[in-house]
Known about the structure:
Strand content: 15-25%
Strand order of the largest sheet: 1-2-3-5-4-6-7-8-9
Mean pLDDT: 91
Oligomer: single chain
Structural class: alpha/beta
Order of helices and strands: EEEEHEHHEHEHEHEH
Number of helices: 7
Radius of gyration: 18 Å
Amino acid sequence: MHFASERTLDDGIGEREFTLDDVTGILWTPPIASPSTPVPLILMGQPGGIGMRRMYSRLAARARSAASYGFASISVELPGSGDRAPLPETEHARADLARAISAGEQPSDTVIDRLILPLVDRTVPELQTTLDEVLELPEIGERVGFSGGAIAIGVRLAATDTRIMAAGLFAGSYVPRSTMAEARRITIPLHVLLQWDDEGNDRGMALELFDAFGSREKTLYANMGGHTGVPHFAGDDAARFFARHLGVDAG
């Protein structure tokens, strides 16, 4: 992990841009983080195909919220986003998905698989490699949570990486049938956000996925409104969820 730049935000949060192989990302640390006071880490997901430059203000706001609870945050550029090479197979599948939705049809499992699985297959190993590196930093503790982004990525990561101790997931995208099977293997605490009238989401599929999770502690947090209508207080509830499970008094 090579840190390319470093600055301190006006509230004392450290912000470091880094590169790891061909992946770029940003690490935010609260003022209290130090080798003598290592802090928990939130791995922040983001939607595919948008890029960190366009997402920066939203990511930084989430990092500030996490820092207020004493957590560090990290986010990486997803495959096919930003300056990274495009994923032609997912672009074709996204066009097929849009055509099906505009025609009032249910997208086929094949289209959903073509859209989601290549991104999951590429992203999860990159996130695990990033965790390998950042958890070696003396100011970062061993408690890790996953927050937001494509829900299929969060499910795969939570099902396969024991370092993830809690996950806050956004039920805002279609999921492959294989993701349902992976969800049954998850036992960590979950906080799942669902926008009830999300125009780009299959509500029934989201509810089926929530039912499939094997966790004994799982909360479905549903609000009225579309994909971009998430109320501001929903973030506060998610932050309290992570404070409960990753904070110094957790576990």
